[in-house]
Amino acid sequence: MEESVKVFTIIDSTMVDQAVVWATSFKRRTSVGNAFIFHTPDVDTSRFYDMGVNLIRVDAGRNMRKYPLLTVLDMMVKRNFGDKVLYVAPYSLFTGSLEHLTTCPLSIDTWLCARATHAYHGDKRNGSFYRTRDPLYAYYKSIASDGYFNTDVLYLKLGGVVKALKAKGVSGFLGYLAIHGEGYRFPESDTLNSICGDRLSLKKRYNMFAENTLRLDFGDVVKARRDMSNASIVTYGKGFKPWDEPSELGTPTTLSSQYAVVQYANALKGISTYLSTSFRTAVATQQKIHELIDVWDTEIRPSVVGLRRKLVEFRAEIDPTGVERDRLTSKRHNEMNRAHMDNM
Question: Does the global pTM surpass 0.90?
């Protein structure tokens, strides 16, 4: 019987609330593998009581702070942690089964399964789109010409990792970064993308980018919601997050992001005692904001549009030639000019 997959994430004291949601959603929604949380010494581990996760403290100092994923992967390789491991970032939500993912045919030579950041390789249309829309397109291509992959969800065969590192002449990811990392803009992702050769493509349902639901047209919103409802892992890695404090820049102004927020808020039910008050309040506030956006989009705005149309029709009826409108406009301009002269 094949060894059970080890599912893990990595946190410090700033990500404890998100990791609590990560752990409970894993316990509720999946039945594959064992969950591990690697953490820095400052994490309050009592928050994970009775969640069924294995907690591993890592005293790696500066490297653990700056390059947590590379540090833990190096440790796994050196200590023969297991055959296959699944990394899922702590700002993720388990929403479905992982059974099909863990049957992915990894091998010594093809040791990684990950989702492409952009689907530009082998597709001229997408290549043209991302070259003009994404300022990082050229940089990604310079690191991984066959396609730069996202590192929020990674399914790895550690035996293949060992072989790949030896082929590069190093004993670990951190060693490779120390030699080749000058100029890397995203040290951990760039290192992994530089070392990895052939890889398997991870279906988007196992790494559904929540930011893809933001600021979409109506037709795209419907598709995005359908994709999210069928997802097994939703990642909140970029842009707006459900636990962000409300702000002019941090809060989307369209209904399209509501599903991602509500989905995360629902995951908090029943675990409030494990979460900080500030975190619960921030998520509840974002949920309320999106409820108000829903009311605006479904009730207020349609009625306003109808009222505006009626006003235009009414004005046309009482002043079909536009004479009265022009008289009022001229009067308003004269009053403004007079007020300007008085202030000189």
Answer: no
